[in-house]
Amino acid sequence: MKPMQPKPFGKLRNFLWPIHGYEHKKLLPMLALFFLISFVYNLLRCMKVTLVVSPEGSGAEVIPFLKVWAVLPGAVLLTYIYTRLSNVFNREQVFYGMLGLFLGFFALFSLVLYPNRAALEFTTLAEFLQVELPEGFKGLIAMIRHWPLSLFYVLSELWSAVVLSMLFWGFANEVTKVDEAKRFYAIFALGANFSGMFSGQSAQFLTLHQYNPNLPFGTDAWEQSLVLQLGMVLLLGILIALLFRWVSHITLPEQKEPSLFEVDSNLIKQDKDPKKKISLMECFSYLAKSRYMLYIAVLVVAYNIVYNFADVLWTDQIKQRYPDPSDFNGYINKIASITSVFATLSGLILSGNVIRRYGWTVTAMITPLIWLVTSVGFFSCMLFEDNIFFSDLLYAMFSLPISSLVLMFGSAQICLGRAAKYTLFDETKEIAFIPLPKEEQRKGKVVVDGIASRFGKSGGSFAIQVLLIVCGDLVYTIPYIAGIFLIVITLWIAAVKGLGKLVANSIDKEDLSDSSSYPRSEKAVILS
């Protein structure tokens, strides 16, 4: 007997909460899981930057060297570990193993590495390199000198690639169908955005600006703040593991609605069967042969290059204004909270509604256009900061000195760019995976989220390194970075156009008429 189809949503319900009542048992726990993982991600992102930029002799120049010589090898290593574990253990065991690796390191860092960092640092080697190497290698020397902080940066950076992208999104894509995804994923984005608001406020609350002698740990205010925030990370990590077990063993197996969940139940049962082994070489071979997957990789690489350029320059501006680590951390957490507000508005107004009304291509095009438009103010202020006429003109318009406007425009670019990434970019990227067969999804997720994103960041970082070595100082690299920035965004836009056509063709091949609450004509628009 053919299952009864759910009733279409009303206009208001379709706009605000296009979820059927029986879908809440599946949506809400996954939403909570995504919220917690994103909460930890936001905490770690602010801590990692503060730790590596604030020490004496360090600055924003250290970030490009870290992303090439530390984060990229770390990404390859963890991706290899992930693929090996996936060949031996089931999805749930891999989740716990990878999560435990991160939590174990953060516990070790807060208890051993950071309190003893002065004794562990490679001071003699750093001083030798400082004498022998040119000024442009300042970031590399800082990375080597403060290696415990560098290691923390690597693991914090890889939380998003491993736990958020490979573990959570890999799980979500396996148990979510196309029709659910176009409604669920916009709501997941809202959960991530709210997590940014809460994490930013929580971090500011836990950031001490004066040493508290009543606390039994830490030798200064910043160390006490760090331990408090890492304690929250560890507690939330344990909660994430418990919630994932609940979702895997209780929530999904209990779904009774065959029209929407029978495929998902079969996917869950597949974990008990012997799985085809996935190798990194096989994943790369698939990427080279698939124009569809190459386009997705270009989107991810382009975003990471653009973001990396903007982030390094923006971080340098913050360091100049806020040299104290507590003030530095407080400012970037404030920006994280503001970013979450923009992302929440984007999720409510744009994300799910734009893709349902205007299609995949239009929605995916918004993110690169935002980065292109906001870069005008940021790069113009930095390029013409010494131009008296331009400075006077901007002061007359905004009543602010141009040095303040640089930080303001940079913060605006980061806020809007991140907000678009967390909603529009992530949603369209993940939906592009869904029409693919499950085996191809897994290969694509490993390469795109595990490797391509790292190569994007590392590629941008390598370009900055070369410019630093040639130019000697970050300020002299700005004209070249602006030129590369424009070229990469142009390639990004071209990839969106190409992938949009392939996504539309892929979805047209699927017969979704029995699993959607939307008319077939509307489904054709969704990924067009």
Written description of the protein model:
- This protein has 528 residues and is an all-alpha fold.
- The chain has a single domain, classed as Growth Hormone, Chain: A (Up-down Bundle).
- It contains 20 helices and no strands.
- Helix 6 runs antiparallel to helix 7 and helix 13 runs antiparallel to helix 19.
- The longest helix is centred in the middle third of the chain and has 34 residues.
Give me the CATH architecture, please. Answer: Up-down Bundle
Number of domains: 1
Instruction: Tell me, rounded to a whole number, the average pLDDT.
Output: 83
The major pleated sheet works out as: none
Strand content: under 5%
Count of extended strands: 0
Distance between the termini: 33 Å
| Helical content class | over 70%
Quick tags:
mainly alpha, 528 residues, disordered C terminus, Growth Hormone, Chain: A, single chain, 20 helices
Topology:
Layout: H1 11-16, H2 24-53, H3 62-88, H4 91-113, H5 117-120, H6 123-132, H7 138-145, H8 147-175, H9 178-206, H10 221-251, H11 258-270, H12 280-289, H13 291-321, H14 325-358, H15 360-383, H16 388-398, H17 402-433, H18 438-471, H19 478-508, H20 520-526
Summarize the structure.
This protein has 528 residues and is mostly helical. The chain contains 20 helices and no strands.
